[in-house]
Structures are given as structure tokens and as C-alpha cells.
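idk why but the lab printer keeps eating my pages so im just putting this in chat instead. protein + magnesium ion:
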Amino acid sequence: MGVLLQVTDVTKIYANQPKPGLDGVSFEVNEGEFLGIMGASGSGKTTLLNVLSTIDTPTSGKITMGRTNIQKLNQTQAADFRKNNLGFIFQEYFLLDSLTVQENIAVPLTLLHRPAREITAKVKELAELFGIASQLQKYPSELSGGQRQRVAAARAIVKRPPLIFADEPTGALDSSSATELLAALSEVNQTIGTTILMVTHDPYAASYTDHILYFKDGHIISELYRSCSDRRVFYNEIMNEAARQDGNR
Ligand SMILES: Nc1ncnc2c1ncn2[C@@H]1O[C@H](COP(=O)(O)OP(=O)(O)OP(=O)(O)O)[C@@H](O)[C@H]1O
Ligand SMILES: [Mg+2]
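predcted complex ->
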């Protein structure tokens, strides 16, 4: 497996802030990895996703995805890069209320002017994977929060971007909806091979990933690799790591 994303000594300084949002962060993400990002509020997680996804620019350091040095992209190139390579899932679902579920999932393909038949087939496939195939003709207001988030996830994945960014995707969900979303994301990661970077506060959500970076004050302070396929074992390891970090505070 090759390296998809290479982050080297990235710092982000915000104007009028005493401390950097990110402070000399370096790591790699392999193709096909499901990476978790954890850390207290204000530790730099969203800042990291913003600079990795070209939504914001780092003050210094280097970020490459494949062979693209993403800081070298001008605004138009960055917009194209996002459109072709990245999918996003947020805590708030950001669905378009006036479009049906079918149309919402199709948006990225519609923007790429793909043929209608291809769009219908791809939407159907992902709707099945996310367990929302019977909801396609409904509007977002007719769905539960968990269903809405699965629509948002299907929309993020429908054009098959190599990389998905998810910022607290389970933050607004109850535990059974969170489980449905996480299981579907795992399946996408394993069957389609989509690389996923997921920010989460929740040890349970993190237990679906295979590698976790812990942030504090804009730095990576530790990391944890999944040691075996049993998710519950990893969950216990994550809880032990949380206890260890609390002990070091
Ligand atoms: N647009 C901004 N302008 C100024 N400072 C910012 C901006 N965005 C973030 N910061 C600061 O940078 C630091 C990191 O913020 P960030 O939003 O990345 O944290 P986070 O880990 O995502 O937190 P949370 O878990 O609450 O979402 C914080 O001190 C925050 O106040
Ligand atoms: Mg955040």
C-alpha cells in the first residue's frame, strides 16, 4: 500500500491567537487507511482537516496528496482538486432540503455532468450500502437524524473520491444510528478501499478506525494502532489510552 497523504511540519498560525492552531505536525496516511483523529476541544482537529482539504492554507510546512503539492494549487485548481479527490461528512448533515434523497446523493455526479443512467445506478448502489434504498423519493425533513447522516455519507462517497474527511460525523447521532453509520463507513473503507480521515471525540466511533492520532495544543502527542481485528479489543485499548492520558495531565 502506498502513501496517499504526506504531512510535513505543518503549522497554522491564526491572527490574534496566542497559540498556533497547528504546531509542526507531521504524519502519513496510507492508501486504504481508516484514520482517527482525537483530542480535546481546541486541540487543532478541525484546523487540520481544513488545511488538508485546501479549505484553509497552512502558515508553513508541506502537504502532498499523491504527487500533488496541495499548497501550490491556485484557488481554481484547489476547487477542482476538492471536486475530484475529496468527499466531506460533517456533524451537521448539510443536505439540500428542497431535493429528494435520490437527488441529494446525486449532487456530486450531477455537478460532473455524468449520464443519468450512471447516476441512477451509483446512487442505488450506495443507498443500498447505507441502508436508505427505501427512502430515495423522500425529502430530508422526512428522515431521522441517522438516516440523514447516511444520506450525507452516501453523497460524500458517490463519486468515489480516494479520500473522505469526516468531522465528528456521529456527534449528533444516538448510539444505534452511530453504529449504522460507522459500520457502513467501515464497509466502504474495506470494499471500495476509500481512505477515511475521521475526527471524533467518541472512543466508540474511534474503535472503528485502524489507527488513531491524538492531538493536544496543535501537536500530535501519541498514536495508537489497531492490534487485532476485534473492534472490542481496540475499544478497550482506546479506553486505556484515554486513562493514561488523563493520568499524565
Ligand atoms: N478561524 C479561526 N480563527 C482564529 N482561531 C481559530 C480559528 N479556528 C480555530 N482557531 C483556534 O485554533 C485552535 C484549534 O481549533 P480547532 O477548531 O482546530 O479545534 P478542534 O480540535 O477542532 O476543537 P473541537 O473539538 O472543539 O471542534 C483553537 O485554539 C481555536 O480557538
Ligand atoms: Mg473541531
